[in-house]
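MFS transporter: structure, please.
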Amino acid sequence: MTLPSELEPTLPPRDAIAPSTNGRREPRSFVPTLALANFGVFVAVLTPVMVSMAFKLQHITANATEATNALGLVLGVGALFALIANPLAGRLSDRTTSRFGMRRPWVVGGSVVGFLALALIAVADSVAIVLVGWCIAQAALNAVLAAANATLPDQVPEVRRGKVSGIVGITTPLAILGGSFLVNLFSADLARFIVPGALCVVLAVLFALFLKDRRLDTKPAERFGLREFFGSFVFNPRKHRDFGWTWLTKFFVMFGYAGVATFLPFYLGDRFHLDEQATVATILAANAISTVFMAVSSPIGGILSDRIGKRRPFVAIAGLIMVVGLVMLALAPSVPFVLLAQGIIGLGAGSFFSVDLALATQVLPNPADTAKDLGVLNIANALPQSIAPAIAPAIIALGALTPLGGYPTWYLFGALVALAGAVLVYRIKGVK
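Here you go.
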């Protein structure tokens, strides 16, 4: 994976970490390979979250209630590992002095470890082994995301970040669709976990090979002790208010989005009495429709945001559209209505993902800690995936006592949380 030295600029320690775009365009290969790397990671992470983990746990547990509780446990604890790994790996990549570059070792190493962890889940015969495997996979694959996405402010001028963010953002729905296709294609748990993991490795290595990574030849003078370790997960919200409001906005919107995906297989079986094969086919159709809507809103949102020079309205509108979709999903009278609701959610999510990353890069507290700060922001992605599965069984159980039912109550709760995110974005004052 060694690239010619002229493609890996060696800079003084302070400048090596700071963005170096200086108004010039990013390398031609950067955007497509970054998008492919994100696609690979999201296929590996989201395929289990969306579909395959639920069926894996159904196959090794005694009944539906045990499977639901196990799913909440595995995804909740695993998301905590993602929460820790993302900012920590980001901060460590800011300090990495490898001759292969600052980001590349984390991209390649994380993808390989993630693949091995997914392979462990594939052959697991107990919830405990699945839990261990998923925790390792979440930590490793989030390290890849932290390092890969930190290259965006490294490489891309601020005026083009909305467009690039939109292109990268569309990889999320494409990954969901691709993962659903793989689960529909393979009936065995082994292939449902190993194939997404292998795809992640291939695309991550491809990105690393083409990345004109930056080298940090001198180790930063600041030591990395316990204080710095715990500092990887926090920031001063009073000093950096815009960053704090950005974090909360992302957290609330992602809570609504993450809550939908995790329990959809159980929702379809409970409300419409679909078997596993019909459920997988329905999820594939829902994700295909969602992807089409996302494919429309994601690039358009990013380009319009750059042209108009505003980020907040796009985030707010995206959140409101997702709220409408969640309410429709909660009250869906039939499977076709579920498909339409998923399309509406995809329309909102596409706009959100296209602008969210661009907005985030404009409120970072410290240019010298780009990957660390993006990692802290990514906690807002990971934390809902931990909290949502943890509290969902209780809300579903309480909802079952109401005329609406358990799962509709859960989706309405997610709609309220997403609505809060759409409103809070206007607390950000430093970005239009």
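Notes: Confidence is low (pLDDT under 50) at residues 1-21.
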